[in-house]
Write a structure and sequence with these properties.
This protein is α/β, with parallel strands linked by helices. The chain is built from 14 helices and eight strands. An eight-stranded mixed β-sheet has the order 3-4-2-5-1-6-7-8, with helices on both faces.
Length: 301
């Protein structure tokens, strides 16, 4: 599926967006190796310690939740133990896995804001083997206000995830479409960031702001944070605009752009209704094959 098409010159606005990205100076950074030191508990279980990845983009509707669900399911197919964290008050990740978070007594909100609540108390098993969920609902929106007065407020999620980090190979955090305190919490807890990027001009414009936020969190809160990669989503090879945007992102970020490209398909909305990943709903579809390819890339990096 994928990758680096050669395009014709774009509009002046698109060129300027590319220049803004290039000036960030993070093109072709060497990748850090995944941590090799494991705790005794991790060695005993054969899993962990988890690499924590935040799927983040302040623009909504770019495929963050879809990518979190399906990348997690594809990693689970590769015998990885995966925990998905629904860190968006809209709760779309939970709904996409068939969980009605409004019927649950405990969610991520309780884990963050109430003492004595353990991560295991909130954890929900999904219908996919090896794939677990920390669900969320609208209650989480109150946490952004309540955390303001907390000491070390940016590390709240990180402290919660430490309880289970040795039990998983990957923890994927589905961030809300903003750059507020909840997103900063996710970035502080993460080792890496995957940026789902819709192949559309306005998504490209906002990418520079997101990368700047990642760099600030890295400098001030989490020196281990790195940009794992940029995932092109909602790609339509029939349109010149999609090809131009993808070309500009590849020019600016080089091998930080995943080879796998997620194309538009009606299958993804169907999986939301079904409440399961595309890898089980339509295992032979192009979308399922694409996320399996992405999982292989994530494992290889």
């Amino acid at each position: 599926m994928s990758t680096n098409p050669v395009m014709s010159d774009d509009s002046g606005a698109l060129e300027q967006a590319t220049l803004d990205l290039a000036t960030l100076g993070i093109v072709n950074e060497p990748r850090k190796a995944r941590r090799s030191e494991e705790s005794p508990q991790a060695e005993k279980s054969g899993h962990g310690p988890a690499r924590v990845i935040a799927l983040c983009n302040q623009k909504g509707g770019v495929g963050k939740t879809t990518s979190t669900i399906n990348l997690g399911a594809a990693l689970a197919e590769c015998d990885q133990r995966v925990l998905l964290v629904d860190f968006d008050p809209q709760g779309a990740l939970s709904v996409g896995l068939g969980v009605n978070a409004y019927d649950l007594e405990l969610t991520v909100y309780n884990l963050l804001m109430q003492s004595g609540i353990r991560t295991e108390d909130v954890l929900v098993k999904t219908n996919v083997a090896g794939l677990d969920l920390l669900p969320s609902n609208i209650d989480l929106s109150a946490a952004e206000v309540q955390l303001v007065s907390e000491v070390a407020r940016e590390q709240t999620l990180d402290r919660a995830l430490r309880q289970v980090r040795d039990e998983y190979d990957y923890i994927l955090i589905d961030c809300q479409p903003s750059l507020g305190l909840l997103t900063v919490n996710a970035l502080t807890a993460a080792h890496g960031v995957i940026v789902p990027l819709e192949c559309e001009f306005f998504s490209l414009r906002g990418l520079a702001m997101l990368i700047d936020t990642i760099e600030k969190v890295k400098d001030r809160l989490n020196p281990d944070l790195e940009l794992d990669g940029i995932l092109a989503t909602m790609y339509d090879s029939r349109t010149v605009h999609s090809r131009q945007v993808l070309s500009r992102v590849v020019e600016a970020f080089g091998d930080k752009v995943y080879e796998t490209v997620i194309s538009r398909t009606v299958r993804f909305p169907e999986t939301t209704v079904a409440g399961e990943p595309i890898t089980t709903w339509a295992p032979g579809s192009g979308g399922a094959k694409a996320y399996r390819a992405l999982a292989r890339e994530v494992l290889a990096r």
